[in-house]
């Protein structure tokens, strides 16, 4: 049976460190996990898109999860990416991760072949019926078959093992429709956003947290943003969103994803190596040229966080009325739109 408590906070989709030969660097990964936890992340998310899961073998993916779970030592929950090429292999990975002790798994909808909504429903229903670990849906329509609102609602209503959704579309109205439809029938259901530019608005309308690549570079910023919303300090959350925005966009624009986030990690003293995809000499020069800008943006974020006094904590009331949420959303959207 699924666990009762919702997953919440910022869970870092950690970069996978590699050595000069392109192998998983276990020592570096363990140190990086400790660094993230010490800076306040609420969980780890190995084998996500930022961790380049499709560029590692199935055996390497399992090893990465084992290392992360072992190094966290129960300090924070682990949400493990468990997507494989087909349902049978995905089920095997899910059950392996259950044995290791992850809190839940995240499964992207089938990729490469575009499936219909009914095909996406059948895929997740088969997996949910066969695994012994909680499952979060992972909607990333840029790379995989989309999980539309109706399909998410249907799966939530029929599959107790499916306990949440991680949405990387950035579609705020869709998130609101899912929350409105699912939360009244599934209080245990978790809503996470994976799109950094929508973090504050998604949290304000009721998302429980995020799996944000920027948290692997400036975990203090994403944590502060999440806590600002939880505490009801919406203006602070919006201010922090504006600090996050240019850094995220700079890292996203650099070379082949997630090289920009590896550059961001270098700005914090972590050389996690180059990713698994080859880069040309021109791209290497582009990365080197962009490093200074990313260094500057990271330093600016750190300076702003250190110079801002801690605000008093007044926890946001649970179950905010629809009218109150509507007023907040209108204010946020107005400010974000200038």
Strand content: 5-15%
- Major sheet: arrangement of strands: 2-1-8-7-6-5-4-3
Helices and strands, in order, run as EHEHEHEHEHEHEHEHHHHH
CATH secondary-structure class: Alpha Beta
Shape: globular
- Report the end-to-end length measured between terminal Cα atoms: 46 Å
The description of the largest β-sheet is: 8 strands, parallel
How would you classify the helix and strand content by structural class?
Answer: alpha/beta
CATH topology: TIM Barrel
Helix content percent band:
40-55%
H/I helix tally: 12
> How many structural units, i.e. domains?
1
Radius of gyration: 19 Å
Number of strand segments: 8
Instruction: State mean pLDDT (0 to 100 scale).
Output: 90
Low-confidence stretches: 310-326
CATH superfamily: Aldolase class I
By CATH, the architecture is named: Alpha-Beta Barrel
């Amino acid at each position: 049976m699924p666990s009762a408590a919702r997953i919440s906070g910022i869970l870092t989709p950690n970069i996978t460190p590699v050595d000069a030969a392109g192998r998983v660097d276990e020592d570096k990964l363990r140190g990086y996990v400790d660094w993230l936890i010490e800076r306040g992340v609420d969980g780890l998310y190995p084998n996500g898109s930022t961790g380049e899961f499709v560029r590692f073998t199935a055996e390497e993916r399992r090893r990465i999860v084992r290392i992360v779970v072992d190094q966290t030592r129960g300090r924070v929950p682990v949400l493990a990416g468990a997507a494989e090429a087909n349902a049978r292999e995905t089920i095997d990975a899910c059950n392996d991760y259950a044995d290791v002790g992850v809190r839940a798994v995240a499964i992207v909808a089938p990729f490469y072949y575009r499936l219909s909504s009914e095909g996406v429903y059948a895929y997740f229903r088969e997996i949910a019926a066969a695994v012994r670990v909680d499952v979060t849906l992972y909607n990333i329509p840029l790379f995989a078959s989309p999980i539309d609102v109706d399909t998410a609602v249907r799966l939530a209503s029929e599959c107790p093992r499916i306990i949440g959704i991680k949405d990387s579309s950035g579609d705020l109205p869709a998130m609101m429709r899912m929350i409105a439809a699912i939360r009244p029938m599934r209080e245990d259901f978790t809503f996470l956003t994976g799109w950094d530019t929508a973090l504050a608005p998604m949290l304000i309308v009721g998302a429980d947290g995020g799996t944000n690549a920027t948290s692997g570079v400036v975990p203090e910023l994403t944590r502060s943003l999440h806590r600002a919303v939880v505490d009801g300090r919406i203006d602070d959350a919006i201010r922090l969103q504006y600090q996050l925005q240019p850094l995220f966009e700079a890292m996203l624009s650099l070379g082949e994803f997630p090289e920009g986030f590896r550059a961001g990690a270098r700005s914090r003293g972590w050389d996690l190596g180059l990713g698994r995809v080859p880069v040309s000499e021109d791209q290497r020069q582009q990365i080197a040229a962009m490093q200074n800008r990313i260094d500057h943006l990271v330093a600016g974020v750190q300076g702003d966080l250190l110079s801002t006094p801690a605000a008093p904590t007044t926890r946001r009331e649970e179950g905010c009325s629809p009218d109150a949420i509507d007023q907040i959303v209108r204010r946020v959207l107005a400010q974000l739109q200038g």
